[in-house]
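Re: that backbone. Tokens:
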């Protein structure tokens, strides 16, 4: 049975989500403000966090950002009544795995939850095939999801780590922005390629000595990005 945290101040919506998640064989904990939701996320283990954005005490963006700062990799499905594109992009860039705008159908909600669970289960099965990677002064520790540069730890968000590992595991292979979006975020984010650009830019500022002349993550002009296959490993 999977344990799910619902952080939603509308008790009617919270109860409705609880009913349908219970039907998916989930055990539910509910919080009604951002602060208590954050405390629960930090002190307990969950398979999924369903997180509203407009919350008392602490909004969902801040909760998500703090969860990722604490290196909690639990999938986050964000809910909001706002439909502006900037909110969706913010949610993704703070580390959310998926995003639903209210009002949404319960069928769509359960489909998104099932898709997240499938992705997580698939990643868990693949972990045994993954190995640590090293390219000169850059080391990627898969087991601990840790990146070292000149033996100093580099703090990456979950999505930044996933992007880096995907490309570093296939050096020389060019990925289009759409490829990366689909592989790391999922097919429902078609059209948000600029999210990939911002993540790549942040990754470069963290691991590259000279962002204007990158050593590790290269641009395949007019196509996308690739990891440098000319490095010693």
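Recovered sequence:
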């Amino acid at each position: 049975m999977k344990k799910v945290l619902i952080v939603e101040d509308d008790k009617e919506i919270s109860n409705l989500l609880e009913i349908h998640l219970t039907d998916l064989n989930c055990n539910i904990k509910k919080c009604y403000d951002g602060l208590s939701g954050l405390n629960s996320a930090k002190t307990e283990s969950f398979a999924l966090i369903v997180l509203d954005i407009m919350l008392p005490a602490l909004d969902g963006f801040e909760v998500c950002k703090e969860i990722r700062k604490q290196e909690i990799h639990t999938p986050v499905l964000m809910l909001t009544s706002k439909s502006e594109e900037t909110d969706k992009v913010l949610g993704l860039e703070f580390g959310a795995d998926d995003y639903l705008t209210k009002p949404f159908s319960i069928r769509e909600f359960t489909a998104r939850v099932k898709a997240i669970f499938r992705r997580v289960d698939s990643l868990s099965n693949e972990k045994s095939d993954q190995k640590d990677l090293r390219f000169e002064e850059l080391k990627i520790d898969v087991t601990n999801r840790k990146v070292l540069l000149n033996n100093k730890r580099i703090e990456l968000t979950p999505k930044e780590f996933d992007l880096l590992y995907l490309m570093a595991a296939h050096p020389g292979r060019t990925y289009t922005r759409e490829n990366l979006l689909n592989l790391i975020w999922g097919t429902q984010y078609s059209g948000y390629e600029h999210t990939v650009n911002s993540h790549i830019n942040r990754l470069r500022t963290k691991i590259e000595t000279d962002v204007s002349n990158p050593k590790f993550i290269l641009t395949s002009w007019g196509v996308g990005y690739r990891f440098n296959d000319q490095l010693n490993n």
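The first strand starts at residue 2 and ends at 7. Helices lie at 11-23, 34-43, 60-69, 85-93, 106-126, 158-168, 177-185, 193-207.
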